[in-house]
Amino acid sequence: MKNILIIGAGRSATALINYVLKQSESFGWFVTVADANPELAISKVGSHPQGRATWLDVTKVNDRRELIERADVVVSLLPAHLHIEVAYDCIRLKKHLITASYVSKEMYRLGDEARNRELIFMGEMGLDPGIDHMSAKQKIDEIIAKGGTLKAFRSYTGGLIAPESDDNPWHYKFTWNPRNVVLAGQGTAQYLEKGKYKYIPYNRLFEQYRTINVEGLGDFEVYANRDSLLYREVYGLGDLPSILRGTIRNAGFCDAWNALIKIGLTDGSYPILESKDLTYHSLMEAYLGPREGTGSVRERIADFLGETPFSPVMRKLDWLGLFRNKRIGIERATPALILENLLLEKWKLKPEDKDMIIMRHEFEYEMDGENREVTSTLVLEGNDSVDTAMSKLVGVPMGIFVKLVMQGKIKETGVNIPVMKQVYDPVLEELKEHGVVFKEVERVMPADA
Predict the structure, then answer these.
(1) Are 248 and 378 part of one and the same domain?
(2) Is the whole-model pTM more than 0.85?
(3) pLDDT at 449 over 80
C-alpha cells in the first residue's frame, strides 16, 4: 500500500497531516489532502514532496470516487453525517476507512460487508472518542487480568483553555467545532449508578453536574454525555453496576450555559424570521413573557432565571453582549445559529492562546477482599492557536493507526472502534512520545464505600 487520502483540511486535520507526511518520508507513501477550500489544503501540505493538495466538493459523487479509487487508505475528517457516503464508496472500491467520529448505526450496518471484503473500517479514532476508549480499555483489561472485579467506571474529557490564556468570565474558548458545543447535550443523558438507571433530560442536564478536582488545577464541573450505557458491552463490562461518561468544563460554566438553555438560545429547530434586523436586546425581550417581572430587559431576564442582576451568571451573559442594541445581522437564523455566531466572536482563540485537554478516568474495583480506586488523569496543553492540543490528540492517534494499517499490522476487519489490544497498545505507546501520559493514583477505599 502506498497511497493515503485525507478528506478535510480543517482545524483538527493539522496534526494528522503533519504526522502522515512525516511518516511518508520514511515509508515512501504519497499523501493527498482534499478539501472544498483548496487554499486551506495547500496551506497544510505546503511544498512537501510526498504530498499534494486538491479541491473536492464531497457532494460531487464522481469527483469523490475518483480520488478514493486512487487511495489505499481513506481518512475522513468530514462532518459526521457525510462519512456514510464515503463509506459506501470505500466498500464499492475496496478501500480501508478511518474516522474520528462516533460510529453511526448506518456505519455499523456495513460491518459484514466490510469483513467480507477484508476491509478495515475504524471509527472513534480521535480524542473523545478515541484516546478515551483506548486508555480506559487498556486499564480495564489490566485490572481484570490481575484478578480484579470492576464495580464502577467513570470517564470525563474536556477541551478547555489553558490557565495562562484564560481571560474571559466563561473560562472557555472554542478549540473544536463550535456548532457541536452549542448543541451539546441535547437529548437525554443515560447512565448507571449502583445498578440503577439514571436519565437526565436536556432541560436539567446543566443543573445536575458533578465536581471533580484535578491536582494542581483545582475544581472542574462535569455534565453527563448522552448515552453512557452503550459502552458497557463495548468495554466487555455487560454487568457493570456503575458507568458514566461526561464532559469537563471550568467551574461556573454549567450554571451560565443552563441560563442560555432556559432562555431558549440553544434551540436550532426553527428560524427567527426577522433575525437580520433584530438586536440582541430585542431578542432577549422577545423571550420574556408578560409575567417576567418589571424593570429593564436585563433585570427581567435575571428575575426569570432566578438570578440577582449582578450574579456570576448575569455577568457572563452581559459579557457576551446579549443586552446590547447591536443588530444580529443574520437572515432567518435559528436561535442556536445566532448564539453560535456571537460565540465565534467572543470565544475565538488569540494567535498566542493555548488550549488544554483534560481526560480523567475513575475505576473502582474489588480484589483480594479490598475495594480499590484508581484515578488516571491526562493533562496536555497546546503550543498556540494553530498547534493545539485538540488538533494533536484528534489527529495523531489517527495518524498512528494509518501507519499500522499501511504496514499491514492491523488484522481486525469490519466496522470497529479502538478497544482491541492490537490497536490500543501500539497507539498508546507511541502517543507517549507526543506527551500523552496518564498520571495514576491508586488507593484502598473504606470497606463501606
Answers:
(1) yes
(2) yes
(3) no
